[in-house]
């Protein structure tokens, strides 16, 4: 014999912050139960129907208990039961919609005395007994499987988050390495930035984080493919325009000209790196929209004002400032902005 434990959860429609917290507790407890009893006292509201449907869809065995039937006429009880069974058809059987009166209201008799009717819960007891007799072991097994799946999903999410953080560190490292190199040795044609910004070693390292061992040849193939995509979509020119405008708000004009290729390279490296993170997260698959859709989405995400503000601040510290500290930079700056003594 197994011991039966009944747990009463908070409601799912309580108002306020405290109500929201209690609702979260209720939903958590509901997913952990072997058998779920959802108690209503009338027809289902949409806010009650949706959570019940979600629980049923993930395999949670459920009963709907129609309580307070003592407040209705017998005809009204039958009408409400019919509506409930109709609405729940497909994921809760008609026999699992059970009417009860757990705490009937007292009735005043003709002599003025109050009569307290007995609770009418026998339909629920009989249905529970039938379910436990025929499905008891399956209920426990199904719930163990469901909890294992939930824990497995939580574990996968934790691993995915850890991998993403590690991959982002790789992207940040390579974006500023590339920026420094290109700032010192600018490219003759800006379109070459697309290819130069996508480092094959970065691709290999991101792949390794996601359990994909790539050789350098494969890394170069992937890098070249994404570099061509950046160029063909016009993202290189779009990035230069975007970053030039942003830099002009913070940096002298001469320095913008000197730093723009390096800053743009870092920006493109970030877009490429983020795109490859999505590629490896999806088991080396670009998805239905292909590489173009992934790259365009990352470009749009990288154009947000909050990101640009933070990126420019980092670019000034990591690219522009080293240029001002380089030999002859002070003379060039003075020529662009002569002091009053001259």
UniProtKB/TrEMBL annotation:
It comes from the Bacteria. Pfam families: DUF697, MMR_HSR1. InterPro entries: DUF697 (IPR021147), GTP-bd (IPR006073), P-loop_NTPase (IPR027417). One of its GO terms (cellular component) is membrane. Transmembrane segments: none annotated. The keyword Transcription does not apply. It is found in: Membrane. Keywords: Membrane, Transmembrane, Transmembrane helix. Residues 3-68 form the G domain. SUPFAM superfamilies: P-loop containing nucleoside triphosphate hydrolases. One of its GO terms (biological process) is tRNA wobble uridine modification. GO terms for molecular function: GTP binding. Its main location: membrane. It is a multi-pass membrane protein. This is DUF697 domain-containing protein. It comes from Symploca sp. SIO1C4.
């Amino acid at each position: 014999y197994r011991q039966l434990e009944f747990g009463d959860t908070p409601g799912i429609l309580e108002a306020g912050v405290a109500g929201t917290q209690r609702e979260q507790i209720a939903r958590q407890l509901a997913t952990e139960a072997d058998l779920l009893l959802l108690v209503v006292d009338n027809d289902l509201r949409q806010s009650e129907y949706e959570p019940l449907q979600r629980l049923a869809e993930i395999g949670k065995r459920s009963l709907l208990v129609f309580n307070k039937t003592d407040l209705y006429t017998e005809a009204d009880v039958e009408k409400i039961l019919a509506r409930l069974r109709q609405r729940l058809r497909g994921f809760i059987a008609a026999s699992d919609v059970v009417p009860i009166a757990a705490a009937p209201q007292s009735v005043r008799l003709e002599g003025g005395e109050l009569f307290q009717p007995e609770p009418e819960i026998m339909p629920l007891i009989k249905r529970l007994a039938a379910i436990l007799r025929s499905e008891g072991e399956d209920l426990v097994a199904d719930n163990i499987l469901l909890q294992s799946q939930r824990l497995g999903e939580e574990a996968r999410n934790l691993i995915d988050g850890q991998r993403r953080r590690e991959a982002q560190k790789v992207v940040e490292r390579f974006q500023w390495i590339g920026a420094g190199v290109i700032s010192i040795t600018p490219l003759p044609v800006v379109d070459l930035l697309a290819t130069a910004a996508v480092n094959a070693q970065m691709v290999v390292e991101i792949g390794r984080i996601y359990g994909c061992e790539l050789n350098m040849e494969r890394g170069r193939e992937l890098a070249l493919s994404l570099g061509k995509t950046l160029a063909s979509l016009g993202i290189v020119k779009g990035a230069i325009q975007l970053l030039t405008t942003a830099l002009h708000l913070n940096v002298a004009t001469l320095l913008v000209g000197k730093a723009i290729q390096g800053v743009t390279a870092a920006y493109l490296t970030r877009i490429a790196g983020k795109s490859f993170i999505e590629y490896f997260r999806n088991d080396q698959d670009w998805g239905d929209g292909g590489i173009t859709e992934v790259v365009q989405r990352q470009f749009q995400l990288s154009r947000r004002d909050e990101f640009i503000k933070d990126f420019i601040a980092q670019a000034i510290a990591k690219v522009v400032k080293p240029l001002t500290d380089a030999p002859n930079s002070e003379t060039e700056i003075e020529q662009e902005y002569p002091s009053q003594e001259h």
